[in-house]
Design a protein that fits this description.
Elements (H helix, E strand, L loop, with lengths): L3 E9 L2 H4 L6 E7 L4 H11 L3 H5 L2 E2 L2 H4 L19 E8 L2 E11 L8 H16 L6 E5 L18
Parallel strand pairs: 5-6
Antiparallel strand pairs: 1-2, 1-3, 4-5
């Protein structure tokens, strides 16, 4: 299969749940598109394969989504629209070389800060594998900083 080799970083049981520091683990994938960062996040949302789940890999991101998308679909044939937008070289809406802004297009409901920390670590590691990305900003559906229940704009400072 032709494409680009990428990694998707998942949590792994029991390591990610019991370690005092958040640890995520890479699994290899092949992106059919040069838009590898977007494809990698799509795969993170889709979650690990059945074989990877059997080996203990997991991500809680997909189960956190609570409603439909508020982002327009880039393809009229697409059902439901995207789960996120990814903007490179921007911190929020401001230009910022090397920063990737991942804006969630659907609401999320988290069971707690541990889950937020694991999902943030998965997103960060998945995006930081790409040389052009030096920093990651994650925004919720309303454009506020996502994770840990903090909200606000602290991540855009």
């Amino acid at each position: 299969m032709a494409g680009y080799l990428i990694k998707v970083y998942f949590s792994k049981s029991p390591e990610s749940e019991t370690s005092p520091s958040i640890t995520v683990f890479p699994v290899g994938r092949v992106s059919p598109t040069a838009d590898m960062a977007t494809f990698a996040i799509q795969l993170l949302i889709a979650g690990p394969t059945p074989q990877e789940r059997a080996a203990g890999y997991f991500s809680e991101l997909n189960r956190m989504f609570t409603n439909g998308t508020n982002c327009a679909s880039p393809s009229p044939a697409s059902l439901g629209g995207p789960d996120f937008t990814l903007t490179l070289d921007h911190k929020g809406t401001s230009p910022d070389q090397g920063t990737a802004t991942l804006k969630l297009c659907r609401g999320t409901l988290s069971p707690g800060e541990g889950t937020d920390a694991r999902v943030t670590a998965e997103i960060d590691a998945t995006l930081l594998q790409f040389a052009a990305i030096k920093k990651v900003v994650i925004l919720d559906v309303n454009g506020q900083c996502w994770g840990g229940g903090r909200g606000g704009t602290y991540c855009l400072q």
